[in-house]
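Whether sequence alone determines local backbone shape is best considered at the level of individual chains. We regard such an encoding as a compact summary of how the chain folds. The sequence in question and its structure tokens are set out directly beneath this paragraph.
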Amino acid sequence: MAAPPTRGDTTGAGTKGSNQVAQGTFQGSSFPGNDYAWVAVNSNWTPVGVVNGYSNGIVQVGGSADAAVGSSVCRAGSTTGWHCGTIQARNASVTYPEGTITGLGRTSVCAEPGDSGGSYISGSQAQGVTSGGSGNCSSGGTTYFQPINEILQVYGLTLVTGGGNPPTGCTGYQNTYNGSLASNQNGYQPSSTGYTAGAGVQRICLDGPNGTDYDAYLQKLSGSTWTDVASGTTPNPDEAFTYNGTAGTYRVRVHAYSGSGSYTLGLTRP
């Protein structure tokens, strides 16, 4: 995709990423009837073929083949993170105060306010973006998604797949740190003694040397012990993940699983 599709709540406005860095502008929007929009990103951002799976890590996107009714499907959302269920119907309709949306997928996946626009994926196949629904993630509910292929076809976009690499140099992060490792060596950023972070979401990006396998582990200090609380461990040089946690002292361990060379680590913390 030339730029990310999103939910059709507005058009013509500028957008910012979760780190409040300018992201791009809305190029098209359709709501009600449909529930989608798309954003053309600026040079600060590079779309990659992954979904933020929150507690499930980074999920790679392999395509956009429609999953059949009864298939398992998972959803990512900024309020409730990662939740899964099944596709119950295709070509469903839902009515909001603004009007009726048609052609949606209906699922048993829960969602809550703020999850709208999040990715739906079945295995490695992108399915769509969250529209809305009923219920919550405590008692369960029904949620609808706008199919991704319709968005791509309407706007002539191409889905980015097979990725996993964050933007080169980890641009768009609050802080960046550089280092160099030999194979099987560890490095700690910004230092071995760590940094203080408030409660909330931390974003970590690792840009390792091409042809290597570099991993990143977010660690939290408890007493005198460092414990891994989140990680990016794909068999690639680059990693990107988030962690929603409590305030405390943290550090990032960078591990050269195979290969050697210089790396860049991006970090945004509350």
Notes: DSSP finds one helix and 21 strands in the chain. The longest helix spans residues 148-155. The first strand starts at residue 5 and ends at 6. The chain has two domains: 5-155, 168-268.
